[in-house]
Structures are given as C-alpha cells and as structure tokens.
Write a structure and sequence with these properties.
By secondary structure, this protein is of the alpha+beta class. The chain has 2 helices and 4 strands, in the order E-E-H-E-H-E.
C-alpha cells in the first residue's frame, strides 16, 4: 500500500483540537501507533483512516485496541 493510505489522528479528551494526522506505510505501523496510544492514553481517542484494501481482520484488530475507524 502507498504511504498515506493509513493514517491516524488523536483527539484529546474534552473539546480540545485534534492533533495533526500521522501517516503510516502499512497496517503494522498503524497498529503499533494505536497500541502505544492506548497504553499512554489519558481519555482521548484515536481515529484511524482504514483504506478500502484493508482486511476485515485488520479492521477488527484496530477496533479491539480502541481505535475509531473512518
């Protein structure tokens, strides 16, 4: 997949402004980011753009770690 097909954006708890998007080369890098966010999270959320080519299992795994899929 091309760079940028996977990206995430962190939304802080409350009404703060979202952080800049973070782009990834592949699913593995995206999942690592989501896992790290979850372990460090203080109540915010991470939204992940999932490309159409993503498998159902990839989508499920991201959701299992609390990502909001777009």
């Amino acid at each position: 997949m091309a760079v940028g097909e996977w990206f995430a954006q962190v939304y802080p708890a409350g009404r703060g402004q979202p952080q800049d998007r973070v782009y990834f080369h592949d699913f593995a890098a995206t999942l690592s980011f989501v896992k790290a966010f979850r372990s460090e999270s203080s109540g915010g959320r991470v939204r992940v753009h999932v490309p159409a080519k993503a498998t159902e299992r990839q989508r499920e795994e991201l959701a299992e770690y609390g990502a909001v899929l777009m």
